Amino acid sequence: MNDETSGLRNNDQTPENPFVLFNEWLNLAVASELNDPSAMSIASVDTQGMPNVRIVLMRRFDERGFCFFTNFESQKGEELLVSKKAAAVFHWKSLRKQIRIRGEVEPVRDAEADEYFNSRPRGSQIASSASKQSQPLPDRKEFEDAMKALEAKYEGQDVPRPAHWSGFRIMPLSIEFWDDGEFRTHDRLRFDRDKLDAEWETVRLYP
Question: What ranges do the domains of the chain cover?
């Protein structure tokens, strides 16, 4: 990538705020990725210290952090509620760029969860209400029957957001930007802060 699209190689082009650079790269990904430019891998740790990672969709972000929505009774939901920490990775193959994020986690406000849930397709609302996410499912018909029951129950009505369904915000303490370079001469720039209300510091890393 050249200097204009990298935002890393020329110090004068590097913003002091990592969210500015993230927004620039996300916009490039929206224009170039075939599917789900907002997909990110989320890593968490269970109570035995074993890591888990999965891909979710980042639905919104601002300078408070990066939000995604899920079932709080799922494996990731339970792990994040206990540890209150997570790591995330965005990888855009079409751009040959990657962003790594580490930080603290908090549940979103009820109003935020309601707003997003109400914006979802009705079928997704029904599925979220019917799913006992991450729990054993003896027969898929059981899930399908639960969805049909909810469709009948809420026919002609709005589907309410279930109490166990909400969202998390990853509030970053570290954001690292990685830009592919020829012959493995990659560019890496990391923004760090030791607490959420601190100023960002930057450090360049060897590839």
Answer: 3-120+162-205
HSE (side-chain half, CA atoms, 13 Å) at 174: 14
Is the pTM of the predicted complex or chain greater than 0.85? yes
**φ and ψ at 171, to 5 degrees?**
-100, 105
Fold of 3-120+162-205: Pnp Oxidase; Chain A (2.30.110)
What's the pLDDT tens digit per position in 90-135?
Answer: 999 999 999 999 999 999 999 999 999 999 999 999 999 999 999 9
